[in-house]
UniProtKB/TrEMBL annotation:
Belongs to the binding-protein-dependent transport system permease family. CysTW subfamily. CDD domains: TM_PBP2. It is found in: Cell membrane. NCBIfam families: 3a0106s02 (TIGR00969), permease_CysT (TIGR02139). The gene is cysT. InterPro entries: CysT_permease, MetI-like, MetI-like_sf, Sulph_transpt2. It is a multi-pass membrane protein. This is Sulfate transport system permease protein CysT. The complex is composed of two ATP-binding proteins (CysA), two transmembrane proteins (CysT and CysW) and a solute-binding protein (CysP).
């Protein structure tokens, strides 16, 4: 508001106040994060090109079969058996890793022993080792005449290579680091005072573990389980050498997709891939919802 007096006209000298409205300038509030719009646009564009566009192309390719053709392609006995092998053994391997991965992380965090750094480095070996090399090594190790396969076969009559058990071992091998590296930081940040307080109140070791430690690490444990499970579903290199690749028994979904591509059945391969994508998405969504529920419950 600006007040001014009339100097001309009949009201001159009477000091009449005239209200003048100053122009209002609208300024955009600066963002706390500089370049937020640019980085967000780059992130969405990058994810679209790397993730969304290939997945959309997969779905579009499979839609060319029509619903009846799509359903017929993904419900053949061979495809259903491959679904059972891939998802069932991936789940079993991830569950095994959830148990033993937690034990490995616990030992690495809570105890000091000679060679601890070496053991800690060996956990990351499946990350660095090419999957095909891992598959060849496991096949040679668990073959009927291998270092471990021969005594297992002679003493217990247990055949590992070229059986579903061999696939489970390969998936366990490549999925173990996901659980260990997810749980390990949580155990390191877990205050020891909480365990001491529980012990001082008369809690047993099992009660301390179930009431203090487990609720704190359970979300991270579920995350590691989900990562190990997702890796196992799509694993190819380390499995095909030890699986035997027998249709209906040890044939995995990634191998079946490769076989369909080699037979120029691109629509059928896309249909199997789309079904695999849908089932994987639903299972991972359930695991993520379970993880969020556990975190909210622990926060209370």
């Amino acid at each position: 508001m600006v007040a001014a007096a009339d100097s001309d006209g009949p009201l001159a000298g009477k000091g009449r106040a005239v209200t003048v409205r100053a122009p209002v300038a609208f300024f955009r509030k600066p963002s706390v994060l500089p370049g937020f719009g640019l980085t967000l646009g780059f992130t969405l564009s990058y994810l679209s090109l790397i993730v969304l566009v290939p997945l959309a192309a997969l779905i579009v390719k499979s839609s060319g079969l029509g619903w009846n053709g799509f359903w017929a392609a993904v419900t053949t006995p061979r495809v259903l058996a491959a679904f059972e092998v891939s998802f069932g053994l991936s789940f079993a391997a991830a569950l095994t890793n959830a148990v033993f991965g937690f034990l490995v992380a616990w030992v690495l965090v809570r105890y000091d022993f000679p060679g601890k750094r070496l053991v800690d480095a060996l956990v990351d070996l499946p990350f660095a080792l090419p999957t095909a090399v891992a598959g060849i090594a496991l096949s040679a190790l668990y073959a009927p005449n291998g270092w471990l396969g021969k005594p297992l076969n002679e003493l217990f009559g247990l055949k590992v290579a070229f059986t579903p058990l061999g696939i489970a071992i390969a998936l366990t091998f490549i999925g173990l680091p996901f659980v260990v590296r997810t749980v390990q930081p949580i155990l390191q940040d877990l205050p020891a005072e909480e365990e001491e307080a529980a012990a001082s109140l008369g809690a047993s070791r099992f009660q301390t573990f179930s009431s203090v430690i487990l609720p704190a690490i359970l979300p991270a444990l579920v995350t590691g389980f989900a990562l190990s499970f997702a890796r196992g579903i799509g694993e190819y290199g380390s499995v095909i050498f030890i699986a035997g690749n027998m249709p209906g028994l040890t044939e995995i979904l990634p191998l079946l997709i490769v076989i369909k591509l080699e037979q120029y059945d691109y629509a059928g391969a896309a249909a199997v891939g789309t079904a695999m994508l849908g089932v994987s998405f639903i299972m991972l969504l359930i695991l993520n919802l379970l993880q969020q529920w556990m975190r909210s419950r622990h926060a209370r």
